[in-house]
Amino acid sequence: MYRFRSRIQTRHRTSIALVVQRPASGVRRPVAALVVTAIYVITSASAFATDSLFATRCFETPIANPFEARIGSMVQVDDERLRLDIGASVDIAEIVNDTSTGRITLGADFMTWTRLRSENNFKFPVETVDYWFGVNGQWSLADGLWSVRGRIAHISSHLVDGLANDSATLVPAPFVYSREFIEILAARTLWSVIRPYAGATFIWATQPDAPDPVVPQVGVDARIPLGGKWHVYAGYDLKMIGINGTYAAANAAQAGIFYDLWQGRGLMLSGYGYSGRSMHGMFYTGYDEYVAIGIQVIW
Question: CB neighbours (10 Å) of residue 24?
Fold first, then answer.
C-alpha cells in the first residue's frame, strides 16, 4: 500500500502538497486498475461550466507533471540541490476552429530539466540535464470541457561536469540514454476549476532497453480564482513506470499562488513534492524524494 502524508512546501506555488511515498518493493502490473479507475472518474461526472479557467490553449499544461515545458527554478529544501527547468511549448498553427467540431492546433515542444548541486559561495555545479524536443497536436470541444493532447518526442539525458571527482572522472559513469515515444492525454473540465486527466506514454525506441514500453498516467489540476489577478494553482500527477516488468510509482504534487500580470501571463510562487522513480534519465533506475520551493514564469 502507498502511504499518503501532507507536507508544507513552497516552491512553484506556496501551499500544502500531498506526497505519496513509494512502497519498499516495486508494484507489479497495476496498469489495468489504474487506467479503469481514471476513466471512470473522468467520464462519470455530470456537473460542468463553460467559463473554464482551462481555456487558454486546447489542452492546458498539467501543473504537476514533471515532463512539461516550464521556465523556473526550485530549491530542494532537504538535499541541497536545485532543479532548473527551461523550456517552451508553443502553438504554431490552428488547423480547425469550429463551433461543432471544436478546435485543433499544432505546436512544438523544446525543454530541458537540469539538476544542480548547491555549494558555498553561490556555486551550483550541474550534475545532469535532460533534453526534450518534439511536436504536439491538441483538440478541444468548442465549450472546452473535453480536450486531448498527443505528443511525439525524443528525450535524451546526460551527465555534466558537476558530477566529476578530483581526477575529472564522472561518477557514476555516463551511458547512452534516449527514447522516442508517443504520449496521449485526455482531460475533462469539471465545475470550471477542476480538471482530471488520464493517458499513457508509448515508447517505441529506447536505450537502454530495460524500461517497459507503456507508462500509464493519471492526474488532476485545479485553478481557483481568489479575486482580482490572484489565483490558486494546484495539481497532482501519478505515473506507473516499469523496468523489466516491475512497476513503481512516480508521484508529483504542486500547489501555489499565481499572479496574473498580463493576459494570463505572470509569476507563480509554489511548493513542489516528488517521490518515486527519478525523472532524470541518467538515474532512471533510482528513486528521488524531495520537497522544494521555487518561482515559475507562466506564459
Answer: 5
Cβ neighbors of 114 (< 8 A, separation 6 or more) are 83, 84, 85, 86, 126, 128, 129, 130
Supply φ then ψ for residue 145, to 5 degrees: -75, -40
pLDDT at residue 144 in the model: 84
The whole-angstrom separation of Cα 234 and Cα 220 is: 8
Query: How do the domains of the chain map onto residue ranges?
Result: 3-298
pTM for this one? 0.81
What the block records as the C-alpha cell of 162 is 558537476
Query: What is the SS3 assignment for 180?
Result: strand
Burial of 124 (0-12, 13-18, 19+ CB in 10 A): middle
pLDDT higher than 80, residue 11: no
Give me the pLDDT at residue 16, please.
33
Cβ count near 164 (within 10 Å): 14
Contact call for residues 264 and 286 (beta carbons, < 8 A): no
Contact indicator for 124, 82 with CB cutoff of 8 Å: yes
Report the residue count for the chain: 299
Round to whole Å and give the CA distance between 258 and 298: 8
CATH architecture of 3-298: Beta Barrel (2.40)
Using alpha carbons, list the distances in angstroms from residue 233 to 11, 44, 228, 255: 12, 24, 15, 6
